[in-house]
Structure formats: C-alpha cells, structure tokens
Amino acid sequence: MDQALNILVARLLAHRFIPRRDPLARRALIDESFREHLEHRLAECGLQLLENPYAEYIAIGLKPEMEDWVFGEGENWLSNNMGLPRDAIALLVVIWALIILPKRERQIARAASAGDTQSDMFGEQKPIAHGEEMAPGVPEDAIYADFGKKLGGKTRFSANLGQLAKLGFVVRRNKLIFEGPLLDLMIDYARLAPRIIEGALGEVLKLSGTRIAAAPEADGEEADEAVELGD
C-alpha cells in the first residue's frame, strides 16, 4: 500500500490532477482503508484531496487551516499560489459561473430523476454524469464583450485566458472556452455558488441570458477565497 500511496501522491503533486478513471484514483475513491491512508499522508503536509462525484478528475489542495500560513494575513494576503493576478481570478470566476453552474444544475437534476443520492461517502468509480456530461463551450468574444473592459482590456483578457488554459482551468478550441480538468475542483461550489447567484455577478449573468443553477443551502461559513490551492 505504501508504494501505491507514494505513487499516487507523487503523481498528484507533479501533474496537479489525474483522471478519476485512473486505477489509483479509483482505488482512492472506493477503498476505504486506502482513502484513509491517503488523507492522512496528505494531511501531514497540510494538504487535502479534492474530488466531487460530478468531476472527471481528482486533485489536491491546501487544508483550510493552512491558508493563513501560506498566504499571510491582512494586506499581505495572496489570492492564490498559481501566479494569477486579480483580474485573472475575476475572469476565472466568471467562466466558472458560465460553465459549471448550468452544468451542475443539469447533473443534479439527472441524479435526482435517477434516484442516485450518492450516499456512499467515497463516491462511485465514475462521476454522476458518467462522463456523458459535456458542458457546451462559451464564446471568447461573448465573454470579452460582457466583461473584457472591466478585466483589463483586450491584451490583459487574452493573456489571462492563456494563463488559465496553461494551468488546466479551461480548454480553448476555435475561439470557444471549454471546461478544463481543474475548473470543477479548485473552486468550492457549495461556498461560492450562493455568493454568485445571490450577488452582483448573478444579476449580471441573468441580464446576459445565462441560466444559473439554484444555490445549495449555505452552511453559514463565508469563503474568503474562491480558488482552492494545488500543490
């Protein structure tokens, strides 16, 4: 088991994410003992496993209690450890709201109609959508028309979009933006979705004709950051 754990942790650190269908990823999701050892190994380094039954990948991020130590406090607080400036973080949240929120609504509705409650704490070997859920691409030009000027103009918009693609948050094809491996993992849906839907961005998205999913019941704890941190 130790060798398998070492390999899995090393791969997650090196690649930042691995497919859910990978044999070691599947083992981490369905083997209770292996999962416990993995979580203990990661916790010793201040990390936690990032996965949800709707995502096609798994990844690792900082444990919440380590955020102050990594990012500092007050005026020295860093927004992330990926080198993303504030306008890139804003663009990331906009893209997440346009792609993940509508997709999640469809996934939840499909799971409910199938009577799939995902009661198993370790999840299934495959995400709820079983790989069939492919979020439609969002036109780059449309996002720029709505938000580009507020996000630094054409040059900054293009540079930030390229950075998000390089980090695995999005995939760009034929002037369309698609979900990348990390988009549904690095942002905490339960914490951010209510703030978007009930806040100013939700109003902007509604005005632009984008349908967004209903927010889950909030647990009362406000998130300071939108992006979970990788290695």
Automatic annotation (TrEMBL):
Organism domain of life: Bacteria
Protein name in the entry: DUF4194 domain-containing protein
Source organism of this protein record: Chitiniphilus purpureus
